[in-house]
């Protein structure tokens, strides 16, 4: 199970995770934090909705009704706050979750790292067009090209030959990140960089990652749609 599948299951029913979902939560710190945020939000909402509302006629006490009204307004505000905190938590975890999904995707395309045949221009052009991306200048010798289904969209998945070893690029037109995010997971070193409305993932496996190269590549990308 990957992080995206886990979040779909946890978001639908966080109280009753089973099997692979429980195992994933134990093994993935990012998703464990996400689950904790969702469970906490569920508890806040449940507490707010569990407050009894007195019958105004039976109470015969205007002051009591007024206090109850104020209490309910305060509880409603706490629910809004809880939802807001959940949203903030998601924004904080989103880049880490995106990085985890990138690593999971690349991990299942191991042959890409050993490719050394220059990619055909037509295949590169087709993958870039499908992913809504364009290089103003080719960043170097590209030896692997695929148009991959990732988070509901096709994205260009490329491998660039460099002096220090192969470097994988994923051009993510529909994945926005607010700032540079470095990651190091399961032997994969990488960085997410904002590029206009989208982002780019640059990563290596068993070789150094050049931050300068990553920044250079990000500066060569334009989105076409």
Task: Give a written overview of the molecule.
48% of the residues lie in helices and 24% in strands. It is an alpha+beta fold. The longest helix has 46 residues. A 6-stranded antiparallel beta sheet has the order 2-3-4-7-6-5, sandwiched between helices. A two-stranded antiparallel sheet has the order 1-8.
Chain-averaged pLDDT:
82
Judging from the principal axes of the Cα atoms, what is the shape?
elongated
Fraction of residues in H or I helices = 40-55%
Instruction: Provide the succession of SSEs.
Output: HHHHHHEEEEEEEHE
CATH architecture of the largest domain: 3-Layer(aba) Sandwich
- Biggest sheet descriptor: 6 strands, antiparallel
Strand line-up across the major sheet: 2-3-4-7-6-5
Alpha carbon gyration radius: 24 Å
Number of domains: 2
The low-confidence parts are: 85-93
Question: How many strands appear in the DSSP assignment?
Answer: 8
**CATH topological fold name of the largest domain:** Protein Transport Mog1p, Chain A
Strand content: 15-25%
Class based on secondary structure composition and strand pairing:
alpha+beta
Topology:
Blueprint: H1 3-12, H2 19-27, H3 29-49, H4 56-59, H5 62-107, H6 121-130, E1 133-135, E2 141-150, E3 153-162, E4 165-172, E5 181-185, E6 188-195, E7 198-205, H7 211-218, E8 221-223
Antiparallel strand pairs: 1-8, 2-3, 3-4, 4-7, 5-6, 6-7
Label this structure with key terms:
225 residues, alpha+beta, Protein Transport Mog1p, Chain A, 6-stranded antiparallel β-sheet
Produce a short descriptive summary.
With 225 residues, the protein is α+β, with helices and mostly antiparallel strands.
């Amino acid at each position: 199970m990957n992080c995206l599948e886990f979040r779909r299951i946890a978001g639908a029913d966080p109280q009753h995770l089973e099997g692979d979902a429980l195992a994933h939560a134990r093994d993935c710190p990012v998703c464990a934090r996400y689950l904790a945020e969702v469970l906490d939000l569920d508890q806040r909402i449940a507490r707010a909705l569990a407050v009894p509302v007195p019958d105004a006629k039976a109470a015969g006490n205007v002051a009591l009704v007024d206090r109850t009204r104020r209490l309910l307004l305060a509880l409603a505000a706490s629910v809004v706050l809880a939802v807001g905190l959940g949203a903030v938590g998601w924004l904080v975890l989103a880049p880490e979750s995106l990085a985890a999904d990138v690593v999971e995707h690349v991990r299942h395309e191991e042959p890409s790292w050993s490719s050394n045949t220059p990619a055909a221009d037509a295949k590169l052009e087709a993958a870039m067009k499908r992913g809504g991306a364009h290089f103003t200048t080719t960043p170097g010798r590209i030896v692997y090209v695929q148009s991959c289904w990732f988070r509901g969209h096709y994205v260009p998945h490329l491998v660039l030959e460099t002096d220090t070893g192969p470097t994988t690029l994923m051009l993510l037109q529909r994945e926005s990140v607010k700032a540079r995010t470095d990651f190091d997971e399961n032997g994969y070193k990488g960085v997410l960089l904002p590029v206009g409305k989208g982002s780019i993932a640059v990563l290596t496996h068993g070789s150094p990652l050049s931050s300068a190269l990553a920044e250079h590549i990000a500066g060569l990308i334009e989105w076409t749609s």
